[in-house]
Specification:
Elements: H1 2-16, H2 19-23, E1 34-40, E2 46-50, H3 63-73, E3 81-86, E4 90-91, E5 94-95, E6 99-102, H4 111-123, E7 128-129, E8 133-136, E9 140-141, E10 171-175, E11 183-186, E12 193-201, E13 214-218, E14 223-230, E15 238-241, H5 246-260, E16 264-265, E17 269-272, E18 280-286, H6 290-300, H7 303-312, E19 319-320, H8 321-333, H9 358-369, H10 374-379, E20 401-408, E21 411-419, E22 425-433, H11 441-454
Parallel strand pairs: 5-7, 6-8, 7-16, 8-17, 9-19, 12-14
Antiparallel strand pairs: 1-2, 1-22, 3-6, 3-18, 4-5, 10-11, 10-15, 13-14, 20-21, 21-22
Helix pairs in contact: 3-6, 3-7, 4-5, 6-7
């Protein structure tokens, strides 16, 4: 009799347990390396929970925090403005002095924008710059770096923010085998050449990604040496390469583009950490709006944009980088979700020390989904099977998941929203931290799908 009563009590307990407690299946993932929290935004029902309050490295899902911060502080339609100005007169096509480039920190500034500004110079008759290019870097000082990424120093994802950001301070090398210069450099950097003597031509087979075929090495004499192999099918394919950065990159790119339009002069440059009094504005450019910056940051997990947005969201949009981070951390202490144990290094997820919990990340996502920024924020997220970093993932849930991805050595993550069959929104966060995380993308995606099955 006692045994039957015990069985009945046990069955009753199972029936009273939340469904997620019985059904959450982690697959082959180690339970002590996973944290999960998922909740229906409309009904508040918890869909799935596992180690939800454990502090985890979120990798690039931390960009969701920076998106929330920058959209709140700057606004979706805010634009930053880049100016070139001078106090020098213009005589017979010659700017008789220096041209000052006031850095704006626009992380999306590219060579087409620069060419547009140069055409503004030429529209005023300027063909030769007699003086130097002066780079006004007074916008930011002490830009925070991402610590402990020395082994990735040549990678584009480690480029630091800069007042004179342009093309993310990388060049794209385009293979053009039928032209005199087999490698086209975008943007063209003055005095930089390409040496491909160590590149083998290996027939007409498939090319694939050039980054898997070639390595690039920058020498002190501004030569980009390439080593590896290409096929005829590699024509027009591109490879990024990182060498000079910061002020040197800005000057070389300016000079190369200016010369491509037939301009001359400005062969030297200088840098000023103090604001240079404005002369006559000769060229100006308005950035794309913050909403587009957030979109590109999240869709393609761009660290430069994320770290720049943290700095741009400083109230005075000028000053010490540490102060800008303090503004973000202070706003988080006032957020309507629990951030007491959060650790924020730079807001991009390019960090070994940043920490959040799955519950608090999902709480933030719920808050955003019920705010005025809901549409802009959700539109910025990669869509399963359609675009961004999820273009080739989660195909069976195409268009139903809007998730920011996160990847670091020892870290895999997904955070964002799912839509169930009833059209309800599920705020979802999954973090995997551990030695085996590098090889868990398929298991991570499978777990996300299982959680969405529970949410139907």
């Amino acid at each position: 009799m006692l045994q039957k009563k015990t069985i009945k009590i046990g069955l009753l307990a199972c029936l009273l347990m939340p469904m997620w407690a019985q059904a959450l299946n982690l697959g082959t993932l180690r339970a002590d390396e996973v944290a999960v929290f998922a909740q229906n935004v409309q009904t508040k029902q918890v869909v799935a929970e596992h180690r939800a309050d454990a502090l985890m490295n979120p990798a690039s899902t931390m960009k969701l925090v920076t998106a929330w911060h920058s959209l709140n502080v700057l606004g979706a339609q805010h634009r930053v403005h880049t100016y070139w100005h001078s106090r020098a007169p213009i005589e017979n096509g010659v700017l008789k002095g220096d041209l000052v480039w006031r850095g704006s920190g626009d992380p999306l500034l590219n060579q087409e924008d620069m060419l547009g500004m140069m055409k503004q110079l030429q529209a005023q008759g300027i063909r030769h710059i007699q003086g130097k290019l002066v780079l006004d870097e007074s916008l930011w000082q002490n830009i925070p770096t991402a610590l402990n990424f020395n082994d990735d120093g040549e990678a584009a994802f480690t480029v630091n923010p800069h007042p004179h950001m342009l093309n993310y301070h990388v060049v794209w090398l385009q293979y053009s085998p039928n032209e005199a210069a087999r490698w086209q450099v975008h943007p063209p950097l003055a005095h930089v050449t390409v040496n491909d003597d160590l590149v083998r031509r290996v027939g007409n087979g498939a090319c694939g990604m050039l980054k898997r075929r070639l390595k690039s090495y920058w020498s002190a004499d501004n030569v980009i040496a390439l080593q590896g192999s290409v096929t005829a099918a590699c024509a027009q394919n591109q490879l990024y390469s990182k060498g000079v950065v910061g002020a040197e990159y800005a000057h070389k790119a300016f000079l190369g583009l200016w010369q491509s339009l037939g301009g001359t002069g400005a062969q030297t440059f200088s840098v000023s950490q103090s604001p240079i009094p404005a002369g006559r504005v000769l060229s100006r450019h308005a950035s794309l709006p913050v909403s587009e910056m957030v979109n590109r940051m999240n869709k393609y997990s761009n660290n430069v944009i994320a770290r720049s947005l943290v700095l741009l969201a400083h109230p005075q949009n000028q000053g010490d980088g540490a102060q800008a981070l303090s503004v973000l951390r202070q706003r988080l202490t006032q957020a309507p979700w629990d951030t007491k144990a959060w650790v924020v290094e730079n807001g991009s997820g390019l960090s070994r020390i940043e920490r959040v919990s799955a519950r608090s990340m999902s709480d933030m996502l719920k808050h955003i989904d019920q705010s005025a920024m809901q549409a802009v924020f959700r539109q910025s997220l990669p869509i399963a099977g359609i675009d961004g970093t999820l273009r080739n993932r989660l195909q069976s849930m195409r268009g139903q998941l809007f998730l920011k991805t996160g990847t670091l050595n020892g870290v895999k993550a997904l955070a964002g929203y799912g839509v169930n069959k009833r059209g309800q929104t599920i705020a979802l966060s999954i973090f995997i931290n551990g030695p085996e995380a590098n090889h868990t993308t398929e298991q991570l995606d499978a777990l996300a799908m299982r959680i969405m099955d529970l949410a139907q």
